């Protein structure tokens, strides 16, 4: 295994990538906050398969943490991250300092409307504005590319797609399926916060999504019936504090009055001790 290239400055990375593009090569980008697991690795695999050069960014973005979340406690392990990137065939890791991402001179403000303030955005109002600041800056630094995001963070994927469309950013956004543990729990860096008892209980989120999806597939058209059943499954299996369960249109994130043939996305967010976990699943009537 060779030593992977690590870049810390925006200017060097940009000129390197401009040369690649001038030579006709396609650039893939996988934005992450590090502490890489199998979910991140699947994005790297997709980027490597679809492009000539893959950049993984590792940046723990202070702006997307809410004041009550402890940025300092966010898990970090750069040595392992570099190994994961190398093993999965990435070419370059971009690890900018906060000042490199957010210069003192400031950044243009990028706004994405209502999508950023419902569900995750309602519970954490500064979260998506923070995500959008980092991702837009990253897109400016990297330039034309394909960028890979996980469906695990389904609302984030929608917010990024909206931003790219609204600001005509020359980036192709690719959504990738959620990678799960053997019991269905979506892999997440935040799972590191779970106690072993909480870890066992947390698989109920996936079970609730499956139960909800099953009745949608079976013909249930009332979103309230679906969310009530999902909440019941979760309440019965955990002392974790349910934040929301929802049935939404996958593009607008509005709850339809009836579920129709085009299908819906089921969303769930739950606090298990120190860890706030989210998950989602698509459901289309048979
Ligand atoms: P994070 O490091 O948590 O900011 O995540 C970086 C990227 O990895 C985001 O696009 C996430 O949606 C994606 N991701 C995180 N967990 C998973 C997972 N279990 N399966 C697929 N993608 C994931």
Present the secondary structure layout.
Layout: E1 5-7, H1 10-22, E2 27-32, H2 38-50, E3 53-58, H3 78-87, E4 92-94, H4 98-101, H5 120-123, H6 127-142, E5 145-150, H7 154-166, E6 171-176, H8 196-202, H9 204-217, H10 223-237, E7 241-248, E8 264-272, E9 275-283
The structure holds adenosine monophosphate (AMP).
Structure description:
With 286 residues, the protein is α/β, with parallel strands linked by helices. It folds into 2 domains: 5-176, HUPs (Rossmann fold, 3-Layer(aba) Sandwich); 189-280, Pantoate--beta-alanine Ligase, Chain: A,domain 2. Helices cover 38% and strands 20% of the residues. The chain has 10 helices and 9 strands. The chain has a 6-stranded parallel beta sheet with strand order 1-4-3-2-5-6, sandwiched between helices. Strand 3, helix 3 (78-87) and strand 4 (92-94) form a beta-alpha-beta unit. Helix 6 (127-142) crosses helix 7 and helix 9 runs antiparallel to helix 10. The model has no long low-confidence stretch (mean pLDDT 96).
Short overview:
This protein is α/β, with parallel strands linked by helices and 286 residues long.
Which short descriptors sum up this protein?
286 residues; alpha/beta; Rossmann fold; Pantoate--beta-alanine Ligase, Chain: A,domain 2; 2 domains; 6-stranded parallel sheet; 3-stranded antiparallel sheet; 9 strands; 20% strand; binds adenosine monophosphate
């Amino acid at each position: 295994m060779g030593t992977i290239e690590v870049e810390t400055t925006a200017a060097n990375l940009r000129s390197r990538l401009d040369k690649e593009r001038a030579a006709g090569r396609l650039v893939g980008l996988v934005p992450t906050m590090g502490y890489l697991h199998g979910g991140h690795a699947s994005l790297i695999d997709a980027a490597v398969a679809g492009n000539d050069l893959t950049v993984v960014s590792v940046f723990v973005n202070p702006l997307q943490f809410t004041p009550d979340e402890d940025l300092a406690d966010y898990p970090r392990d750069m040595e392992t991250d570099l190994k994961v990137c190398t093993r999965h065939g990435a070419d370059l890791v971009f690890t900018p300092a906060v000042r490199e991402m957010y210069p003192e001179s400031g950044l243009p403000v990028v706004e994405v409307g209502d999508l950023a303030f419902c569900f995750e955005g309602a519970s954490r109002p500064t979260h998506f504005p923070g995500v959008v600041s980092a991702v837009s800056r990253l897109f400016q630094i990297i330039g034309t590319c394909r960028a890979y995001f996980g469906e695990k963070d389904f609302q984030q994927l929608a917010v990024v797609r909206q931003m790219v469309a609204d600001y005509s950013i020359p980036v192709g956004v690719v959504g990738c399926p959620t990678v799960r543990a053997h019991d269905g729990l979506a892999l997440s860096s935040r799972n590191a916060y779970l106690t072993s008892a909480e870890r066992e209980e947390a698989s109920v989120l996936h079970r609730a999504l499956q139960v909800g999806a099953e009745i949608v597939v079976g013909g249930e058209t009332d979103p309230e019936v679906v969310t009530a059943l999902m909440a019941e499954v979760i309440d019965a299996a955990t002392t974790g504090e349910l934040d929301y369960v929802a049935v939404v249109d996958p593009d607008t994130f509005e709850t339809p009055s009836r579920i129709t043939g085009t299908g819906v996305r089921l969303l769930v967010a739950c606090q298990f001790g120190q860890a706030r976990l989210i998950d989602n699943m698509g459901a289309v009537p048979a």
